[in-house]
Design goal:
Blueprint lengths: L1 H7 L9 E9 L2 E6 L3 E6 L13 E7 L2 E7 H5 L11 E7 L2 E7 L1 E9 L3 E3 H4 L8 E7 L2 E6 L1 H6 L1
Parallel strand pairs: 2-11, 5-7
Antiparallel strand pairs: 1-2, 1-8, 3-6, 4-5, 6-7, 9-10, 10-11
Length: 155
């Protein structure tokens, strides 16, 4: 089991077996992503709609000369948006040469998680949509769903 977790998160943890994540809300649930891929977090800006794009593609954003596609995870995961418009944020990610943003209801905090706080997806959640989830983290009395944004983008 321990070996499986080590292989599963290989390259994600530092030597002290921790991962740093950005936690955010989508609807009534809390999610988190690895901070290593987060480039920046912005207020909700003017998004230009792209005709005939998939329903979960909100549009594109011109951010300091870079055109960035914006994904609405509410539509992708079939969730209701919660909270105030002032709290909504765009989290911009960088994967090699690809930049993409997601709309979240609220960014709550940056956390350090130890491997003992994370359950593998297969042990907790066995569904087709589980491929988008890296694991479930236990933080105090909360559960955070760790998203695999690369797999979300590939689908």
């Amino acid at each position: 089991m321990e070996e499986t977790l080590n292989l599963y998160f290989q390259g994600t943890y530092s030597q002290d077996d921790e991962i740093q994540v950005v936690a955010f809300n989508l609807g009534k649930e809390e999610y988190a992503v690895d901070i290593l891929n987060v480039q920046e977090i912005n207020r909700l800006l003017n998004i230009t709609r792209v005709p005939r794009s998939e329903s979960h593609i909100e549009g594109v954003l011109n951010l300091r000369g870079n055109i960035i596609p914006i994904i609405n995870l509410h539509k992708k995961f079939n969730l209701q948006s919660e909270g105030n418009e002032e709290d909504k944020r765009i989290v911009v990610f960088q994967f090699n040469d690809l930049k993409v943003g997601i709309i979240v209801d609220e960014v709550s905090e940056v956390l350090r998680l130890g491997k003992e706080d994370i359950e593998e997806t297969g042990k907790v959640y066995s569904s087709i949509n589980a491929e988008h989830i890296k694991g479930i983290a236990k933080v105090n009395n909360r559960l955070l769903i760790l998203l695999d944004l690369l797999k979300i983008l590939e689908s």
